[in-house]
Amino acid sequence: MIYELGFSYYDDNPENDDNVIIAVYSSYKQAEAGLKKFAQQPRFKEKEKFLYICERKINEAFWTEGFWPAMPSYFKIELLEGYIIDKYEDNYIEILDEKGEKMYEGNFHDYTDYKQCICLRNITTGWMYCLDKQQKNIQYKTKNFKNLLYFLLEKYEIKKLGWRSIF
Amino acid sequence: MYVYQLTYEHDGNLLSIGYFGSWRKARDIMKTYRSTLPGFKDYPNNFCIKKVKVNKDNYFFLN
After folding, report:
1. CA A91, CA A111: separation in Å to the nearest integer?
2. Which residue of B11, B30, B46, B61 is the best one to mutate when testing the A interface, meaning the one whose CB has the most A CBs within 10 A?
3. Is B11 in Cβ contact with A22 (below 8 Å)?
4. Assigned CATH topology for domain A74-165
5. Domain ranges of chain B
6. What pLDDT tens digit does each residue of chain A (167 aa) get?
7. Would you tell me how many other CB atoms lie within 10 Å of the CB of residue B62?
8. Which long-range contacts link A147-155 to residues 24+ away (Cβ below 8 Å)?
9. Residues B40, A63: contact at Cβ < 8 Å?
10. A7 has a chain B CB within 8 A of its CB
11. For a tag on chain B, would you pick the N or C end, based on fewer CB atoms within 10 A?
12. Quick one: closest CA in A to B56, which residue?
């Protein structure tokens, strides 16, 4: 058995993340002494609680699973005409226009993207919205699916509406 | 006493995979991981095998 002494610091700013394996020791006592010694170093001072000691068996992998790297598609959806949906937590989204400026925000579960507009739906409240890409505002709001379909047909000559899940 | 430390770095995150008694053993584990496990398979070049002396404190990273 060996004992890994490491430092794994993180705060609200990912740029401050700091990870390093400092040393490995043959006993926990020696690792503790190492921790006390390194806690005084400028890099770790005031952040002592992020120093750790981890017991490891030699010839046995500690990390045995894979990992799922964050992909851009987890956070954003690219729409037609250069528009983007930025996804955040709790179904909160922001819609950016072709210049990258925030055009609309709110809590939504589903969307449908057209060249002229974006339709959004909040399943919890039942409200459905039509956001015009040129006007950059909500043109229509309803809880009735047929009414929305009728509006799309009248204004944009869109005949089909199928929801896609945002999250 | 020396051990072979197998680590993996991705997006600033350092994973300590394990410590092995031989370089060959560490390399075998690395090969298995990079050919079978998700994430490692996608970024297979981020592994590092390092020979480290047990009970020796390194100071190179303190600057």
Report:
1. 12
2. B61
3. no
4. Thrombin, subunit H (2.40.10)
5. 2-54
6. 999 999 999 888 878 889 999 999 999 999 999 999 999 898 998 899 999 999 999 999 888 888 877 666 678 899 999 999 999 888 899 999 999 999 999 999 999 999 999 999 999 999 999 999 999 999 999 999 999 999 999 999 999 999 999 98
7. 13
8. A148/A119, A152/A114, A152/A117, A152/A119, A155/A130
9. no
10. no
11. C
12. A23
Q: A162 and chain B: CB distance < 8 Å anywhere?
A: no
CB contact under 8 A, B16 and A4: yes
Distance from chain centroid for Cα A45: 31
Q: List Cβ neighbours of B26 (8 Å cut-off, separation of 6 or more).
A: B4, B5, B6, B18, B20, B49
A49 touches chain B (CB under 8 A): no
Structure tokens at A158: 């869109």
Domain definitions of chain A by residue range = 2-56, 74-165
Q: Which residues pair with A128 in a beta bridge?
A: A121, A142
Q: Which member of A24, A41, A66 has the closest CB to residue B19?
A: A24
Does A62 lie at the interface with B, CB-CB under 8 angstroms? yes
The CA distance from B18 to B30, in Å, is 10
